[in-house]
Design a protein that fits this description.
- The chain contains 16 helices and 14 strands.
- It is α/β, with parallel strands linked by helices.
Length: 374
């Protein structure tokens, strides 16, 4: 299904269900109240004001304000030369963005959903990701490509898949997945400064998430994952729209006496191996939560790396919680059943730490009690 036939089903600006506010911003942060969507819009506005080479291009980004309302008001402020509505041809306007980047501009290209990005895969893989290498370093492609990803909104298979792992497979790209308001606000500036093409995956389930944007927050370090919650018994590794569920699972585990550390990948390519291995070195157990399909997934890559690098630190096999290997269903109950959920994350963590009673995170225990618990 091309974007031409899908505009009626998506461009009605679907209202994403709000994510828990606890995942919206940095834990314990104080600052101005905002939403994930508004944080993205502020980042765009800041970039457009700071550099005349920056422009936004994509389907419905201008008069309509973006499929998910991210660019509302920017056309009126910056005009049609810098907020450009593109025809319904992903290959054409992504290619135009690549050409503009080669010519010295700093384009931000918006694709409605990750499913439609497959229509531009030739441009992204065979041009954007390869030109610097093929030209011997003479042709950098500093383009930022934003797209919506993820399910949970009953938009069916052609609008709901999580294909970030596919793009994380491609050398020459940097792949980002902002999961918090702070990251949504402050990832764009360093992405635009990167000489390589950068793909930004915005989970649609986060757009309505609200929380505090710290006043002193600045550009995000794109080279490092973030430990969103410290823990000692098991490492929960996730990214993007799965972060709220993973934090909720950590709360449930804490109530049962299991201390879970939550690592938000933030950057899917290149992966921050150092943070992952350091966390698993502390907890000795790992669960990877990935909304992508299990086979050939990002979760598979992380699991393999942990097995290669942390084999003697692991006290249990690496667990994975992924979407069911089916096209994403439309029916609400089937869609929820196909997606990773809090209960499945908790169950995987419990398998990793061993049978109850859980005494791992309950404070000091005697040597005999500790052995019995695991």
């Amino acid at each position: 299904m091309s974007s031409t036939s899908s505009t009626s089903s998506v461009s009605s600006r679907p209202s994403a269900r709000a994510a828990p506010a606890s995942a919206a911003g940095t834990a314990g942060a104080t600052g101005r109240k905002t939403t994930y969507r508004e944080a993205l819009r502020e980042a765009l506005r800041e970039a457009l004001r700071a550099d005349e080479r920056v422009f936004l291009m994509g389907e419905d980004v201008g008069r309509y304000g973006g499929c998910f309302g991210v660019s509302l008001g920017l056309l009126e402020e910056f005009g049609p030369e810098r907020i450009r509505d593109a025809p319904l041809s992903e290959s054409a306007f992504v290619g135009a963005g690549i050409g503009a980047a080669l010519a010295g501009m700093r384009p931000i290209v918006e694709i409605m959903t990750v499913n439609f990005s497959l229509l531009a895969l030739d441009q992204i893989l065979n041009n954007a990701a390869t030109l610097l290498h093929m030209s011997g370093g003479q042709l950098p492609v500093p383009v930022v490509i934003r797209m919506t990803t993820g399910a949970g909104r009953q938009l069916a298979a052609q609008h709901s898949h999580s294909l970030e792992g596919w793009y994380a497979h491609i050398p020459g790209l940097r792949v980002l997945a902002p999961a918090t308001i702070t990251d949504a606000r402050h990832m764009l500036a360093p992405a635009l400064a990167d000489p390589d093409p950068v793909l930004v995956f915005e989970h649609a389930g986060l757009y309505n998430a609200s929380g505090d944007l710290p006043d002193d927050a600045g550009p995000v370090d794109l080279d490092h994952a973030a430990v969103r919650r410290p823990g000692t018994d098991v490492t929960l590794i996730t990214y993007g729209g799965s972060l709220p569920k993973t934090l909720a699972a950590a709360d449930d585990l804490a109530a049962a006496g299991v201390s879970a550390e939550v690592v938000d990948l933030r950057t899917l390519r290149p992966l921050d191996d150092a943070t992952l291995t350091a966390s698993v070195g502390r907890t000795h157990r790992a669960v990877v939560v990935d909304e992508g399909w299990r086979s050939g997934s990002l979760s598979a890559e992380i699991s393999a790396r942990l097995t290669e690098r942390c084999f003697y630190d692991l006290d249990a096999p690496v667990e994975r919680v992924c979407s069911a290997e089916v096209p994403m269903p439309y029916a609400r109950r089937l869609e929820q059943a196909a997606l990773p959920q809090v209960g499945g994350i908790v169950a995987a963590a419990r398998r990793a730490v061993g049978p109850a009673p859980y005494t791992l995170g309950a404070g000091p225990v005697s040597e005999g009690e500790g052995k019995a618990a695991v």
